[in-house]
From TrEMBL:
Protein name (Swiss-Prot/TrEMBL): Vps52 coiled-coil domain-containing protein
Species this protein is from: Ceratopteris richardii (Triangle waterfern)
Lineage of producing organism: Eukaryota, Viridiplantae, Streptophyta, Embryophyta, Tracheophyta
Signal peptide start-end: none
GO MF annotations in UniProt: syntaxin binding
Vps52 coiled-coil domain residues: 88-176
InterPro entries xrefs: Vps52, Vps52_CC
GO terms, biological process: endocytic recycling; Golgi to vacuole transport; retrograde transport, endosome to Golgi
GO CC term (a single one): cytosol
Length: 199
């Protein structure tokens, strides 16, 4: 299965390389022909006659058949380069397949890491909101504790002030004059209430 996949990949790759090279050659040829169409040939013959006196130009003009041979040689060399390029690509196809596999594996690993980091970020968001909730609860409990301490302090003072002292209990219990006891009791209660009101 792996060999079949490699052969299919190589075949597609070679086809793509051939098409690319053909397209490049076609584009170059079209550019060359459009350039020839662009150049005006009027007066070219007279110019060539004038330039024949120069040795370089005369030798080039005298070698028309050599130029055709040169153009043919260039075409053959281009074909050889095309074949060599395809061979080079074929030689490196195993490395390219290996590289493709490694890149695909790296992509899958990066995708897994992205998923893990996304989950971690979501967990951090949940923990952050839980910490915020705990902080709010802690502040609320702190206020409640403070209020309870204040209430406890006030209640403790109130209870201390309304407790009947043992001497008064003795007077009430052993005294024959209950009116005097009621007066003392009323005064003590009045003092306790006024102490709480003042605070």
């Amino acid at each position: 299965m792996r060999t079949m996949e490699m052969m299919l990949w190589q075949s597609a790759f070679i086809s793509q390389v051939k098409n690319t090279l053909k397209q490049r050659l076609t584009d170059s040829f079209l550019r060359l022909t459009s350039l020839c169409d662009f150049i005006s040939l009027e007066g070219l013959k007279e110019e060539l006659e004038k330039l024949k006196v120069q040795n370089v130009i005369a030798s080039i003009l005298g070698k028309k058949s050599e130029l055709n041979d040169y153009a043919r040689d260039v075409g053959v060399k281009l074909q050889q380069v095309e074949v060599e390029s395809i061979k080079d690509y074929m030689k490196e196809s195993d490395n390219l397949i290996s590289l493709h596999t490694q890149i695909r594996d790296c992509d899958s690993i990066l995708e897994e890491m992205e998923g893990l980091l996304g989950g971690f970020q979501a967990n951090l968001g949940v923990i952050s909101s839980e910490l915020k909730g705990l902080q709010e609860q802690s502040m609320s409990m702190g206020h409640k504790l403070k209020n309870r301490k204040i209430a406890e302090s006030d209640l403790s003072r109130f209870l201390e002030n309304i407790v009947v002292p043992p001497k008064m209990i003795d007077i009430i219990a052993n005294s024959e004059d209950h009116i005097q006891a009621k007066l003392v009791w009323s005064q003590a209660l009045h003092v306790a209430v006024s102490n709480i009101s003042d605070k």
